[in-house]
Amino acid sequence: MNLGEVGLLQEELPLFIEALAKNHVIISAIHNHWIFTNPTLLYVHFQSVEQLLTFAQETVDFYHEVARKAHDTFIKNVFEHAPVDE
Asked: pLDDT digit string (tens) for 17-42?
């Protein structure tokens, strides 16, 4: 059995949960450690039964997926609000 815990910004949580669920990884807990933090940090505990190196690579892939989607959203927002030269 493999166990993982990661701290995420609140807005990253749905992307990470989606990546875990898509890969049939069990989410065992979502919680905070500190209250009144800014930005809000949430911690996700997850687990799976598979080879350790497979689990490690999947965990890296989950991070990359969150980073890619967050980057895409950031770029989209920048261009939606960019002034248009006429």
From this structure: 988 988 889 999 999 988 888 888 99
